[in-house]
Amino acid sequence: MQFHQLHYFVAVAETRHFTHAAERVHVAQPSLSQQIKSLENELGAELFSRARGNVSLTEAGEALLPLARRILADAETARHEVQELVQLRRGRVRLGAPPSLCTGLLPEVLRTFHDLHPGIELLIEESGSHDLVRDLARGALDLALVVLPLPTPSPALSTVELLQEDLVVVSSAASPAPRRPVRIADLQGQPLVMFRHGYDLRELTVAACRAAGFEPAFTVEGGEMDAVLGFVRAGLGVAVVPSMVAARAGRDLRVTALARPGLRRTIALARRTDVAPPRAARELQRVLLSTQAARPAGNPES
Questions:
Q1: How far apart are CA 73 and CA 50, in angstroms?
Q2: Does residue 301 or residue 257 have the better pLDDT?
Q3: pLDDT per residue over 12-61, tens digit each?
Q4: Half-sphere CA count of 155, side-chain side, radius 13 A
Q5: pLDDT per residue as tens digits for the range 218-240
Q6: What 8-state DSSP symbol labels residue 234?
Q7: Which region holds residue 45: left if phi is over 0, alpha if psi is between -120 and 50, else beta?
Q8: Beta pairing class for 91-97 and 191-195
Q9: How far apart are CA 299 and CA 302, in angstroms?
Q10: Would you tell me how many other CB atoms lie within 10 Å of the CB of residue 265?
Q11: What proportions of the chain, in percent to the nearest 5, are helix, strand and coil?
Q12: pTM, full prediction
């Protein structure tokens, strides 16, 4: 049983005339009649009664007609759905990103993408690079923004660098102003508000302190980005955060640059190399790359 046979069958059933049905479906009448006969042979039953030039449905034809209409309608729906996906009118993108980028970089980028493709659903997973690389490798994400170098290099993943971002020190505006600019060594003995384990910023800050010859002292640890900023506002300590986040932190936080060479992080877009990303994911990648994440990072004190 083939779709065009069902299409011809429905045309004959609706016109009750083989010649008119052939004209409707734009085929020669003998060809249409032959296909109807082949369909009847396959089903083992006549579908039309052709007595004295009058065409009417047999009992088998009456039973087949609603089913044929449903099959053809489902096929048209499937064709339409695929076209919607191909033309970026519907679909979804699963994007992973560190929380700091979800508050800094992504809102404007996702707004641009949504304006271009309002029918595409955006699913965002916030986590550290280690978890994002794992989720990307197992197919739970289409794309991920990660901090380079990857915690676990994988030949199954490819990365494209988006930007390099300075890290800065934030402190409560009500607390005494720190020395400007702040050296990593100046953080020795300072109460630090620290992110939870798995945060790229935690690993980077701790590594920098150890390279300067000391272990950092934490007053509070284990928070996400919003919690860390809240603890700093409350005067519980200082924190090292991305400049994009600091630029939006508000007037109740003081932003101070780190002395050269400072600390920087490299943000890249990662995807799997063994599976082609969906069309919508490729379009989001294009938007991300085209913007280059070139947004002002604020004006920390120097």
A1: 27
A2: 257
A3: 999 999 999 999 999 999 999 999 999 999 999 999 998 777 899 999 99
A4: 0
A5: 999 988 888 999 999 999 999 99
A6: T
A7: beta
A8: unpaired
A9: 9
A10: 18
A11: 45, 25, 30
A12: 0.71
Q: What is the largest CA-CA distance in the chain?
A: 104
Alpha helices by DSSP H, 176-240: 200-211, 225-233
Share the mean pLDDT of the chain: 89
- β-partners of residue 145 are 269
What are the strands, taking DSSP E only, across the chain? 48-49, 56-57, 91-97, 120-126, 143-148, 157-172, 191-195, 217-223, 239-242, 253-257, 264-272
DSSP string spanning 119-162? TEEEEEEE--HHHHHHHHHTTS-SEEEEEESPSS--TTEEEEEE
- Mention every residue, 6+ apart, whose C-beta is less than 8 A from residue 171: 177, 178, 232, 238, 253, 254, 256
* Higher per-residue confidence, 154 vs 261: 261
Neighbours of 73 (CB within 10 A): 10
What does each C-alpha distance from 198 to 211, 212, 225 come to in angstroms? 20, 22, 13
For residue 84, the SS3 value is helix
Q: What local confidence, expressed as pLDDT, does residue 300 receive?
A: 40
Helices and strands in the chain, H and E counts:
11, 11
First to last CA, the chain: 77
Compute the distance between CA of residue 14 and CA of residue 103 in angstroms, rounded to an integer: 59
